[in-house]
TrEMBL record:
Protein name per Swiss-Prot or TrEMBL: Rrf2 family transcriptional regulator
Keywords, alphabetical: DNA-binding
Species this protein is from: Sinisalibacter aestuarii
InterPro entries associated with the record: TR_Rrf2-type_CS, Tscrpt_reg_Rrf2, WH-like_DNA-bd_sf, WH_DNA-bd_sf
Pfam families associated with the record: Rrf2
Length: 144
């Protein structure tokens, strides 16, 4: 299974937030640290906010932070939220896709079982398990 860049970037951002869960981070700060598009990150933060994984604060001192402690946010939950718009295969699309094998395919059930097994395994870990080390003043957020 291959995760989208949307999910990859979201996981990176959340791993950084998990290092300092009470701190507000700006999209510019996270986007710059990981070399990702600020606009792309804003869309990711909107999805995570709608799902109750992060909270946002507007204004001059605004930003976003985790909505819950990192040990209460499962990796499976995150991936489900961020991958919701991306179907593993055509027939998994909400509209049924354009699969000509619908009704005669024995693969869909097996692929769905594999996807669910993947997500159940991620459910065994939390964001706290993969938090990045806290950044030090003047240090790049992503630096070890």
């Amino acid at each position: 299974m291959r995760l989208t860049s949307f999910t990859d970037y979201g996981l990176r951002a959340l791993m950084q937030l998990a290092a300092e869960p009470a701190r507000l981070f700006t999209t510019d700060e996270i986007a710059g640290a990981f070399g990702i598009s600020r606009n792309h990150l804003k869309k990711i933060v909107q999805e995570l906010s709608a799902a109750g994984i992060v909270v946002t604060q507007r204004g001059a001192n605004g930003g976003f932070r985790l909505a819950r402690p990192p040990d209460q946010i499962g990796l499976g939950e995150i991936v489900r939220v961020l991958e919701a718009r991306s179907a593993l295969v055509e027939c998994f699309r909400a509209d049924g896709g354009a699969c000509v094998l619908n009704g005669a395919c024995g693969l869909k059930t097996r692929l769905n079982a594999a996807r669910e097994a993947f997500l159940r395994d991620l459910d065994r870990s939390t964001l706290a398990d993969c938090a990045l080390p806290p950044a030090r003043v003047g240090q790049d957020l992503a630096a070890p």
